[in-house]
Amino acid sequence: MFRFNLREPLSTVVWFIRWNLICWPLGLITGSLCSLFLWLLDEVTKIRLSTPGIIWGLPVAGVLIGLTYSRFGKSVDAGNNLVLDEIHEPAGGVPLRMIPLVLLGTIITHLFGGSAGREGTAVQMGGSAASALSRIIPGIQPGDVRILLMAGVAAGFGGIFGTPVAGTVFAMEVLAIGRIHYSAVLPCLMASVISDQCCVFWGTAHTHYQIESLIASETAANSGFHLAPVTLHLVAATTVAGVAFGLTGRLFSQLAHACQAGFRRAFVRPWMRPLVGGMAVILLATGFEMREYLGLGVNSPNPDDVTIVSSFHPGGADAFSWLWKSVFTVLTVGSGFKGGEVTPLFFIGAALGNTLASVFQTPVDFLAAMGFVAVFAGATNTPLACTLMAVELFGGECTLYFAIACFVSFVFSGHTGIYLSQQIGTAKTPQSSTFEGVRLGSLREQKPHVREDH
Quick check: helix, strand or coil at residue 176? Predict the structure, then answer.
């Protein structure tokens, strides 16, 4: 005799309502913090661009950041890795002081011209806000804390880039290579969407891109949705370029780890590292006239500068622009300045795609868009999130190519990544199955250089 059991659907409804009540404040708090951060970032970037001489204060700014973290921020200096470790095994939580420290540190870094990103700051603010909420929710269990922290990561990522779906998947995918924790999917989605819409409410604007070369003529004739043409040439070009993007992501990760380990060995006092790193950035920027690689690099009032936006146009990047941006970012982040690596990875990928477009005889904006997300996919081991991010940023017309570029890059980046607390859930190839279940940092510790995340 058929019986319909109401207990499970009712408990699911209760669970859903409970997480709504939790994710609304988390999303509103994180979204507001992201909006404030983006506004401050825009303001200090305007100051830097209008006051070129401010770069000479970068070493002093680095000393200030180093001393501040030495005095008040030792417990949060691990940055993104601390958040990931707390998700893997909830312990002492993520201190609330992480929010003002990483926010102030990142703003100072960008004010004086450091080449850093913004996702690290957003993820840390979201993780810290989530951890603070977990301490005031009565009867919360360790498993719920893990989900809440993942939702905080999703809220930070979705809010800072305006990509709530990608933020949802990123929070679940970044924890372990080849394994996604679907138990957190609804809380992550709710927190990410609320955070993104909170940014919209505050009037926060995000840069939008379009691959005009493949779809503009069709959409002009008909406002309906059109997929980009699937040709053997474009598939082959995307695949081979994906290999290059993956190797570039791997190179960047290894350089970043080695650079930070080198600074740690050479300078015992933390404030000395950004002092020297800041001087090195000044030497490159002024001595070789490469100021265009300072800051985020999204756009510039100087039309001759190489930026992410310019990389989508013919002649918008030089052959080695991707490499120079890598060097500037590695020196900045590796020496102890705050921020993140993801937006510089967008720059590196777009600039490399611009260069490869002439090699493979493809439209420039097409391969720039592929590189934009694929280098990021390789460096963070999050190909699914990056494919979805590409759809949210560029539109769904080139979804097939985004998937090819991101997943090929993911495989060829190897078992490396910018987050050393990331675990290997499933090896990328059968030959490397012995790595399963270990932390990327453990693989790094077997080598001469050891890096702790900023």
Answer: strand
